[in-house]
């Protein structure tokens, strides 16, 4: 069947250099044939454009190709755009407008947003606000069977576009650009997204717009940032491409994934919590990794059964289940050894990890027998939260941030692993990206869940899962449906991207002699004492 193939050109900041850009377009068309249109992102006008522009505005000169431009990015050039809703500026040169969708006769859909992100309210005429973005999203997402747009034009780069992608050179994509543009791109799922303003050329690897194995495959997005026209560094400012409108494409061809496709850089904006299904029984891990012990020199006394000290229990409180066999982690169990416990609360205790990633790798464990965080009663959960806050404050005093993870799979007693990472080694974003990148390599789908959501909202009791929490509050979740690498959390943290100690990924390679372990526990207990609420409560 006949399909309308459109040949388009896109360019970066023209900044009034009309002769340069139109001269280049004429040369390309003379060599390669006619193109349908030129799309201009960034600053079309410069501060000294008036004389050159007058020749086009009066008709003395004419653009060699239908040219579509975005609006002003500063107060200086506002006067060139007389109608905010869009208008013809000169023959063959059209201002698209503040925001909207341009649909050509071929069926190609081009979404556009003019200006830069507003830093104040009300937004100046050369800026866009969250309301502008929301209205543009709503106008498209409300259309029946919306799958995405063919092209998105913005002047600013989307913030974080480089996440999971190839390097953007000297541009720091974590600081550059607009979060609102990222949100727009995440929702509109353009096949091509063009931007400028940074005087740099960056063609990002294509990224997917669906969750692998969880959502129906969708088309990929190609983000291309273009440099300023006629720049002396010879950076690419003009991009030629052919595109068939999405509406005319064979669905299988549209969603075909290229070899170099990456994870979506804006996945954290999607805030999609996984849907739990019927509970599965988790296998038990045959070998036990950690051994703990009640230390006689603990800061206070308590009964060996781990009962609370006279506090009345709420009637509805969940009671810990009884282990089916010997449990290394129930504090009253005779299986417990005796030397790595460093703090005992009313419902929980802390113990150093045997074969820890570092000497201050610690575990938060419930005193009674609970399999996972999801199973905890409210008072146990409350004390877990207190221990997390105390450890955060403690590690920050040491110039570190913690990473917490839980593997509710092939284990029978909840173990919250808490591993400190030096603040100057990496940021919370670096840690999160390392987990997602390694998960991606192993085809493990780690979803970011809202910071203030409870793990119980996304997992039912008995459902196997892996869960990561950063001390910034960010959380990642994987619903385990088959096999799962038991040492995944350790492997990520030990990798070159983070602690750079891959030899410590297996705890069995790190186990110390008992006297050394006992000395580490004494040192931790001494240092942690000022932060240990269990000694004061």
What features would you describe in this structure?
The longest helix has 20 residues, at 378-397. The protein is of the alpha/beta class and 537 residues long. 42% of the residues are buried. It has helices spanning 18-32, 50-57, 130-141, 179-188, 251-254, 267-270, 378-397, 428-441, 488-494, 514-528, and strands spanning 6-11, 37-40, 67-69, 87-90, 93-95, 99-103, 109-113, 116-117, 127-128, 151-154, 192-195, 202-203, 207-208, 220-225, 238-243, 341-344, 348-352, 362-366, 400-408, 416-422, 447-449, 465-470, 475-479. It has 10 helices and 23 strands. It is elongated. The strands form 4 sheets. The chain has an 8-stranded antiparallel sheet, sandwiched between helices. Strands 6, 7, 10, 11, 12, 13 and 14 form a 7-stranded mixed sheet that branches. Strands 4-5-3-2-1-15 form a 6-stranded mixed sheet, with no helix packed on it. The N and C termini lie far apart (77 Å). It has 2 domains: 6-255, Metallo-dependent phosphatases (Purple Acid Phosphatase, chain A, domain 2, 4-Layer Sandwich); 338-531, HIT family, subunit A (2-Layer Sandwich). A hairpin with a 7-residue loop joins strand 19 (400-408) and strand 20 (416-422). Residues 313-324 have a biased composition (Polar residues). Residues 256-283, 297-324 are annotated as: Disordered. GO terms for molecular function: RNA lariat debranching enzyme activator activity. It comes from Phainopepla nitens. Residues 442-533 form the Cwf19-like protein C-terminal domain.
